[in-house]
Amino acid sequence: MAIYQLRNLDKWAKKVGGDAEKVTRAVALQMTNEVISRTRVDTGRARGNWHAEINQAEENIFEFAGGGAAAIPFALSHCNQAIAEMYGHRWILSNNVPYIQKLETLDSMVRGTVLEFNRAIDAAVKGL
C-alpha cells in the first residue's frame, strides 16, 4: 500500500482556526471525489471500490457492476461516514481490486491528486 501525505495541512488548519474541522472534511471530500473521478472506467469495478475508513484500511472488495457513471455515488456512499468522523484521526482512502496498483502506476489518480492538493495547501498557507 502506498501512503501519500498532505504537507502543511496542520499549519494551515491552525491558521484557519475554528473552521479547521469543517475545512479538513471538505478537503477530504474533494480529494476523494477527485481520486474516484480520475480512476479509469471499463466496468466501473475499480472506480466503485474506493473506501474511506478511520485508522485502518478497508479489506473488502465490493462487487459493483453499475457502470462508470454510477460508480462515483456508489464509492462515495462508502466514504461519507469516514469523512464525517475523520477529524483528529488517521483517514485512509483505499481500493482493494487486485489491479488497482497497475492503474495507479499508469494514471497516478491518487499521487496526482495529492500533489495538486499539496500545491493548493502550500499556496493557502502562504496566503494567510
Description of the structure:
- The structure is a single chain.
- The protein has 128 residues and is mainly alpha-helical.
- The chain has a domain at 41-122.
- The protein is 56% helix and 8% strand.
- It has helices at residues 9-16, 20-38, 68-85, 100-107, 109-127, and strands at residues 50-54, 91-95.
- Helix 1 (9-16) packs across helix 2 and helix 2 (20-38) packs antiparallel against helix 3 (68-85).
- The radius of gyration is 15 Å and the shape is globular.
- Ends distance: 34 Å
Structural class, please?
Answer: mainly alpha
Counting DSSP E segments of at least 2 residues, the number of strands comes to 2
Radius of gyration: 15 Å
Q: Could you give a short account of the major beta sheet?
A: 2 strands, antiparallel
Characteristic terms for this protein:
single chain, 128 residues, mainly alpha, two-stranded antiparallel sheet, 2 strands, 8% strand
Compact overview of the structure:
By secondary structure, the protein is mainly alpha-helical. Helix content is 56%, strand content 8%. The protein is built from five helices and two strands.
Summarize the helices and strands and which ones pair or pack:
Layout: H1 9-16, H2 20-38, E1 50-54, H3 68-85, E2 91-95, H4 100-107, H5 109-127
Antiparallel strand pairs: 1-2
Helix pairs in contact: 1-2, 1-5, 2-3, 2-5
